[in-house]
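Page 37, continued from 36.
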């Protein structure tokens, strides 16, 4: 059974947020050795993957974090 803290964390991860909020959360919580992001790289990611954004300006940790890490790792020139 999941505790209240786990449930709150899951809700936070699934809640759509603005690009600025996602960027701050992403950069604060990314493990050492993984690429950090910028507004410019997030916009390029969004342009490269429009199907991930049903709501144009809505980002979520659950939906975008892993895909962004993979994309940044394979696009080191951005």
């Amino acid at each position: 059974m999941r505790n209240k803290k786990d449930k709150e964390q899951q809700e936070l991860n699934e809640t759509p947020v603005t690009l600025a909020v996602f960027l701050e959360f992403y950069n604060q919580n990314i493990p050492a050795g993984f690429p950090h992001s910028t507004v410019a790289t997030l916009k390029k990611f969004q342009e490269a993957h429009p199907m991930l954004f049903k709501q144009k300006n809505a980002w979520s940790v659950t939906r975008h974090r892993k895909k962004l890490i993979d994309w940044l790792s394979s696009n080191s020139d951005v």
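The mean pLDDT is 86. Flag for discussion at group meeting. The two ends are 42 Å apart (CA to CA).
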